[in-house]
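Hi support team,

I've been running sequence recovery on a batch of backbones for a student project. Most finish fine, but this one hangs at about 90% for roughly twenty minutes before it completes. I'm not sure whether the input is malformed or the queue is just slow. I've pasted the structure tokens below so you can try to reproduce it. Let me know if you need the job ID as well.

Thanks,
M.K.
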């Protein structure tokens, strides 16, 4: 690594600087890769700390290889969750069918880990080497010939060689660089709510339960110390709501799912009054190009595959690993590196997006009684498709 001398703006004149927006899977894994390549990395995260919560992340195949290169696989293995039993329920709580997943049926190595545990592991891997600024975001970007000039919401300016947008489905970087974010949003026709609460007694540990009605679903994931409470519902078009107004979103869940029956009244009671939850439209991000000049997108910001794909966390880590590999291959040519990153990764992303778009909603929330009955017959015959 080149030795450091700092100029008056805090920039290390001996190393190229890189700025990353978003400190989740894409941002932290990209920070690790760029730091290893010798960049002086700053991560800005809009939230006051790491954004916690959400369902566990599946880790397999290339994601394991990347975490191995980062020296993190042992830490992941130590936190891996036990095998999980998946049960599909009727309104009277009888089991329509069940499967065991995560390990016991899988032929290849596969881990499931709490989203928070993986965030902590990735943060621990960069915390000593990378500057992470919480409560900050980018206000404006100005690309020059040799650098990008970035102004933060505290008014400070940074001149960096590379800027990486890892700020998720509603990416600020995408909006600032590529224009109105919604032109790239491909709405899949529904919404997903998820809240992690202390163990509720509503579901056994290491078990998931799913109850589906036409256009709606409720889900419980049980662990020894916590319960995930999930709801999904279909809509023909996007609902107008203020994504910062959490009370309004809780009311939406109550209105859409409150009369579902099954264990839903108890589930809603366990999430009442707490604004710390995940709620978002189910959508994909489909862009014709993931980079512009010295700015490149990684993870949900550039190619969100949607919660229906079950691969969002892995895809973010794979994206970060592929970007670092491309920059290593073309060390002084970011344009070639960005092109290579996209050429290599895009076919895989599009394949996953297509599968989620074709099958995801009908699996999660069958549209009507006929589709639900067909899905229930598949479950009874042992073809779960979940
Ligand atoms: C709290 C939370 C819970 C989630 N729960 C689920 C779930 O249950 N099921 C599921 O399928 N997916 C869930 N997701 C989405 C899933 O984590 C992503 O698909 C996946 O992790 C991709 O990672 P990412 O790093 O690209 O994006 P994300 O994990 O979405 O991370 C984006 C990061 O950017 C930050 N950010 C946003 N705007 C700005 C800004 N203007 N400036 C700086 N930083 C910004 C966010 O705070 C966040 O830390 C959740 C995401 C979050 C943030």
């Amino acid at each position: 690594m080149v030795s450091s001398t700092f100029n008056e703006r805090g920039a290390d004149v001996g190393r190229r600087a890189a700025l990353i927006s978003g400190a989740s899977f894409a941002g932290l894994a990209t920070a690790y890769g760029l730091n290893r390549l010798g960049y002086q990395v700053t991560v800005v995260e809009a939230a006051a700390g790491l954004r916690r919560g959400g369902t566990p992340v599946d880790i397999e195949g290339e994601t394991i290889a990347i975490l191995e290169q980062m020296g993190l696989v042992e830490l992941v293995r130590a936190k891996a969750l036990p095998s999980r039993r998946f049960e599909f329920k009727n309104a009277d709580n009888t089991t329509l069918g069940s499967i065991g997943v995560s390990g016991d049926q899988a032929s290849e190595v596969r881990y499931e880990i709490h989203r928070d545990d993986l965030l902590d592991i990735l943060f621990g891997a960069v915390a000593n080497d990378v500057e992470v600024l919480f409560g900050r975001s980018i206000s404006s970007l100005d690309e020059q010939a040799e650098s990008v000039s970035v102004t933060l919401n505290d008014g400070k300016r940074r001149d960096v060689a590379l800027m990486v947008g890892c700020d998720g489905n509603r990416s600020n970087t995408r909006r600032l660089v590529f224009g109105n974010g919604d032109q790239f949003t491909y709405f899949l026709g529904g919404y997903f709510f998820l809240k992690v609460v202390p163990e509720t007694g509503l579901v056994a540990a290491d078990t998931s339960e799913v109850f589906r009605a036409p256009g709606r679903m409720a889900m419980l994931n049980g662990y020894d110390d916590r319960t995930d409470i999930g709801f999904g519902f279909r809509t023909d078009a996007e609902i107008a709501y203020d994504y910062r107004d959490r009370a309004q979103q809780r009311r939406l869940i109550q209105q859409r799912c409150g009369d579902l029956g099954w264990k839903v009244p108890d589930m809603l009671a366990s999430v009442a009054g707490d604004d710390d939850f995940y709620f978002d439209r189910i959508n994909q991000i489909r862009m014709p190009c993931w980079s512009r000049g010295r700015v490149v997108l990684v993870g949900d910001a550039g190619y969100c595959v949607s919660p229906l794909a079950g691969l969002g966390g892995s895809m973010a880590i794979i994206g970060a690993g592929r970007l670092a590999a491309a920059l290593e291959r073309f060390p002084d040519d970011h344009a070639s590196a960005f092109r290579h990153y996209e050429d290599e990764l895009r076919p895989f992303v599009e394949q996953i997006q297509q599968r989620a778009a074709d099958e995801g909603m009908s699996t999660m929330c069958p549209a009507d009684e006929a589709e639900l009955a067909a899905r229930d017959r598949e479950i009874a015959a042992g073809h779960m498709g979940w």
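--
Follow-up from support: It reproduced on our side and the slowdown came from queue contention, not your input. The two ends are 46 Å apart (CA to CA). No action needed from you.
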